[in-house]
Amino acid sequence: MDAGISPQRKLQRPVLWFVLTALLLLPALVGGIAWKQGAFAKTTQLYFFAKTAYGMNKGMAVKFSGFRIGSVEDVSLEPNGSVKVRMVIDNAYIHFLPKDSKARLGKEGLIGASVIEIEPGESGARQAADNDVLAFARLRDFNDLAEELADQIQPILTDVKKITEFINDPGSDLRQTIKNINRTSAALVETTEEIKRLVQSSDQRMGVVSGQLGALLQNAGQRLDQVGASLKTLDEKMPALMLKADKTLENIQAVSANVKKITDEAVEQVPGMLNDGKAAVEDAREIVGGVKKAWPVRNFVKPQQETLIPLDSHESGSAQRR
Amino acid sequence: MRLRIILFALILTACAGSPPEPQNARLAQATDYNRRGEAALEHGDYRRALAYYREALRIDLSIEHAEGIAINSINLARAHQLAGESALAHQVLDDLLGASALRLAPELTAAARLRKALLYQGQGKLADASNWAERSEALCKDAVCAWRGTLLNLQARLALARADAPAAHALAAQALAINRTRTAGEETANSLRLQAEANIQQQQFAAALAPLNEALALDKRLGLSERIEADLALMAEAHAGAGNAEQAREFRLRAASVNKRRMTVE
Question: Which of A313, A315, A320, A322 to mutate to test the interface with B (most CBs of B within 10 A)?
């Protein structure tokens, strides 16, 4: 009976069933994907206003305690120059957000992608509702930290430069003093030799006088011994002081290297390096402060004063900064 | 023995010089903020500079440190001006100049008044600028005043704006004499440039070349691109006026080249 039916005809029915099933399943599949993507999820719109749109863009994630709870739907410029940001929050999470919650612009890792972090308020205010406006703040990012670090380094470098200049300046009081001391000491040695010779020759003629003079010189020698003992301590401490200054420079070099690395190297190293940098800056500040307070530097290095930006008659006639 | 004598003399020297009096902690903190403000301003970060100067001023106000209050107010005004907030800059200076209880040193009052004059000049309000320059001059009459050279330069610039070239030249010459004694490189170059501008305004083109050459050399030594460009442009103008078309063209090209590189650097 079936011998007259062609094989094509035989296949027609299953193909038809397959196509029909596919046509029925396709919308279900599309709907499923859309549901999974949150297209049917109920959402709440929240707003915040920022001074600048820097770092914010449409589609960026809105997170709460590290979980994505929504996204930025729109970023627009207001007539007063402020930036209005519209977020949509999945209603499943809205109960976490009281009305006084704060939106913060932060980064995933210090130089990762920007996200809006929602920080819940603490006053027990009502739950945020549609079209509520949240307060906004920017979290400090890598650039801010690096700039702050640079600001902190600058004064220390100035201090170190001043101390180094002071020590190296051939015309500085310290160098001149040492030069004068050398000259004076040479003359004193000669004088002492002359006194000795004089005493020896006098001894032959005036035994009593020389005895007294000898005692006097011995007494002076003992006093110089006492001074010498205390100065020996000082003499021992001076190299340590200079080592401290060297250490300061090393610390600063380390900080500079860290800052350079921050821009060049991997993300995960950044926070640690910044912490190291800060610690080194604090060390450097402490050491430089110590050197400045130590004798003899303290006598020659004036304490820093507040300074006036130079008044410049050309500045207002130009676009130059200063 | 020799070592002992050296050390003895050294300790005597150290004892002879009394160490400078240390700053109190609050003042040291204010100084730190002041210096950070200066560093931020150097980097063109006006917002940060404003924050630092505000903090320094707050500390100085809390300890009634009159000198610091004046310095940080004037600096804060400059930072506001650079941030494009002239009204706030005026307000800060008005607050300072209106605080009669502060008993500011005349030189600092003169500096604040001069800053007002510079602000007005930057806004193109030349009559107000002249007025405040005169008020500054009342407290800054001779070369002892640190701002005398700057003040005279500003007055010369204002005279040029009034097209009073002879007065501008005379004021710039006075300023030059003072600035040279103070080894104030920037202001010396400004005086020279103003003299040259006055010469050009009076059609004395050849006379403008010598001061411009000196100003250019000074500005190059100080690395001030914008002023080097101004010097070169004025050189071109002077040469063009004197009929040296080829040299005028050469200086114009040099000015344009500096401008181009300056923009990429800035």
Answer: A313
Residue among B17, B43, B71 whose CB faces A306 most closely: B71
User: What are the φ/ψ torsions at residue A195 (nearest 5 degrees)?
Assistant: -60, -45
Angle formed at CA A310 by CA A249 and CA A282, multiple of 5 degrees: 25
Kind plus residue range of the DSSP H or E element containing A136: strand A132-138
User: Is A314 in Cβ contact with B190 (below 8 Å)?
Assistant: yes
Strand partners, A116: A62, A105
Instruction: Write the pLDDT tens digit of every residue in A197-225.
Output: 765 665 555 554 455 555 655 655 565 56
The pLDDT score that the predictor gives to residue A226 is 55
B31 CB within 8 Å of a chain A CB: yes
User: From CA B79, how far away is CA B86, in angstroms rounded?
Assistant: 10
Residues, chain B: 266
Q: Pairing relation of β-strands A132-138 and A102-107? A: parallel
Find the closest chain A residue to B23 by CA distance.
A303
Measuring CA to CA, how many Å separate B236 from each of A283, B57, B191, B245? Answer: 54, 45, 19, 9
User: What domains sit in chain B, N to C, each tagged with a CATH number?
Assistant: 56-83+106-141 (no CATH), 153-266 (1.25.40.10)
pTM for the full model? 0.52
Query: Distance, in angstroms, between A112 CA and closest chain B CA?
Result: 24
- In chain A, the residue whose alpha carbon lies closest to the alpha carbon of B44 is A321
A107-125 residue pLDDT tens: 776 567 788 989 887 667 7
Q: Which two tokens stand for residue B61?
A: 């106000």
Q: Which residues of A touch B154 (CB under 8 A)?
A: 313
Q: Which of A147, A185, A232 lies at the smallest CB-CB distance from B48? A: A147
ipTM metric: 0.77
